[in-house]
C-alpha cells in the first residue's frame, strides 16, 4: 500500500487498527503498539488485552468482533513474547480476529505465514496476513547512482535512542509548514506507521543499501524523504546495517540521535558509547561516499531519563559543542532543527 | 564438515571432486572451479564439459559414472549461467551425477533444493545436496566479545581484487613454516575450498558480524585464523557487508588487497577506487572498534593486468608509500608479508 494513506485499499491490510496487547508483561513489550498509538492516534480505534495484561495504551477495550463492527480493518500484533515466539493464546486470538473479518499484521520473529492454523483461518476468511519482518521480494542490489530529491537520515550513537521518533517528529513539523515530507520506514513499528517500508535488519546482507534506495526513490516535487535510521556505526553487532543504510540513503541531511544516560552500547557491557563529535564525523565521512554534499543539521537527544531543567541545559551544551541545534523531539519538538534544515537547503 | 579435511566424512559431500563446467561460455564463468583446481589440485580428479564448452581447467575429461568409479565423491557446479539460473541441461546433468552416486554442491543463486526433480534424485540415491549460498541455520547476532587466538583479515579497495587468493596464499606460506593456520571462507568458492564457511553476503543483515564470529571462534593453539574478506568499505552496494565482516573478525592483522588497473568500483562507473592510504586508514579505524590493537601488516597487489617489470616497480613503490611489504601473491608469493606478520606477532 502507498505511504500513509489514511484508508487502506479494499481487501488490503491497513488502518483503522485494533492494537493487540495480549498478555504483555510490561511497557517494553508493547513498544510497537505504543509507537502506533502515539504517531497515528486517529488510526487506532481500540486495544485488546487478555486478562492480567498490565500495560495499557488507554484506548477503548474491544473484542475482535466488536472492533470489526466499529470499523477496524486490521489487528496489529503489537506485543512480543520472549524470543518473538507466538504462544497458543496469541495464535487462538489471531484466528478469532481473522474469523471476525480482520486482517492481521505482526512483526514477530516467528512468522504468521509459518503457522498452518493461522494460514488456514486467513484463507477461509479471505483475509491478509502481513509479516513486517518479511522483506518484499525483488529488492535490488544498491546502485549508488545519484538520484533526485532531498533526503534526511537519522543516525545514532546506539540502537534505540529515538531515531524513529525523531524522524516522525520532523515529518510532522515539515508538514505543518506545508513542506512535502514522507517518513520512510526501516523497522517494524515504522512500517506499521507508514503502511510500507523495508525491514532493513531482515534483508539479505547484499541488499542493505539497495533496500534503502528502493524505499526512497528519486523525487521531483521539492519534498523530503525522511529515512528512519537503524543501529549505529559504533555497534559491533549491527554496524554493517547502519553503514549500508547510510550509503543507500544518499542523505543530504543527517540528524544525530543520542540517549545521554545509556551506560554502554545496547546489550554490550564493555562497549562505551562513542563521543558525539566522533560519531557525527564518522557518519559524515561514510555518507560522503554516495553524497559528497551531505550536511549535519541537528542533534536529537532522548532526555526521558533526566530532569527537565538538566535536559534544557544539556541540549544547550550539546548545541554549542557541535554547532548545531539540539532538542528533545518528544518534550521540546524539532522546530529549531527544522529551521536549520530549511535554511541549509533553500530550494 | 571440519575445515580442510582431505577426505569427506562417510555419506557427506566433500572431496574428491568432479568439477562441472557444463557449457560455460568463458573463463569468467568457471571462476569457482578454477579457484578449487588452483588451491586444491589433489582434490580435483576430473572435469566434465558439455559439447561446445570452450574454457578448460586442463583436468581429465570424465563422465559422472566414470568419475564415481575413479573415486570422486562430489560433483561441484563450478559454473554459472547469467543470473545464476540452472538451465534444463544443467538440471539433467545434476540428476545424472546423483544417479551415478555423487553428492552435488553448487553456489548458484537458484538453489539445488528448490528444484523438485533434483531433490527427488538426491533422495532416491541417498545423496547430499549442498547450496553454498545457504547460510547454516542458527548463526547468532555478533557479541563483540573479545576472543582468544590470532586472526588475520584481507580487506580490499574493491570487490574481486584477490582477497581469497591472498588469504589462501598466506595460509600455505604459514603452514610451510609450521605455523598452524586455517583459511576461514566467506564466499562460495572459498567454502568449497575450505569445506565449510559462511556465505556472508547471503546472511540476514543483522547477522553479518555474528556469522564471522561463528566461523572464527576463539582458538588457544597459537595458530592463525585467516579470514577471507569481501567487498570494500568504499563500495556503495556492499560496504555494509565489509564493515560487519571487519567487526566480527576482530582482526589482529589486516592485509590490504588491490588491483591497480581497475578503472572504477566494480559495476559502478562514476565511483573511483579509493586511494590506498585512505582505504587502509578507514579499515584500521573501523577495525579498532572490536580490536584496538589491530595492525596493517602488508599489501597484496593483483598485477595480472600489467607487465612483470612494472609489477615489481609498483610493488616497491606501494611498499614505500605505505611502509608495508607489498607483493603479488600469485606471481611473487607472500613471504615478505608473512615475515612481517610473524615479526609483529611474536608469541
Label this structure with key terms.
alpha/beta; Rossmann fold; 2 domains; six-stranded parallel sheet; five-stranded parallel sheet; 11 helices; 11 strands; 33% helix
Summarize the structure.
Chain A is an alpha/beta fold. The first copy, chain A, is built from 11 helices and 11 strands. The relative contact order of chain A is 0.11.
Give a written overview of the molecule:
Chain A has 347 residues and is α/β, with parallel strands linked by helices. Chain A has two domains: 17-131, Rossmann fold (3-Layer(aba) Sandwich); 150-344, Rossmann fold (3-Layer(aba) Sandwich). In chain A, 33% of the residues lie in helices and 15% in strands. Chain A contains eleven helices and eleven strands. Chain A has helices at 31-39, 64-69, 88-99, 116-125, 163-176, 188-194, 208-215, 239-249, 276-287, 308-322, 335-344, and strands at 17-22, 44-49, 74-77, 103-106, 129-131, 150-156, 181-184, 224-227, 253-258, 295-301, 326-327. In chain A, the strands form two sheets. In chain A, strands 7-8-6-9-10-11 form a six-stranded parallel sheet, with helices on both faces. In chain A, strands 2-1-3-4-5 form a five-stranded parallel sheet, with helices on both faces. In chain A, helix 10 links the parallel strand 10 (295-301) and strand 11. The longest helix of chain A has 15 residues, at 308-322.
**Biggest sheet of chain A, in brief?**
6 strands, parallel
How many alpha or pi helices of chain A? 11
Distance between the termini of chain A: 30 Å
- Main sheet of chain A: which strands, in order across? 7-8-6-9-10-11
* Most extensive chain-chain interface: A-B, 37 and 38 residues
Q: Write down the CATH topology of the largest domain in chain A.
A: Rossmann fold
Oligomer: homodimer
Instruction: Describe the global form of chain A.
Output: globular
CATH-defined architecture of the largest domain in chain A: 3-Layer(aba) Sandwich
The radius of gyration of chain A is 20 Å
Which CATH class of the largest domain in chain A is shown? Alpha Beta
| Extended strand count of chain A | 11
According to CATH, the homologous superfamily of the largest domain in chain A is: P-loop containing nucleotide triphosphate hydrolases
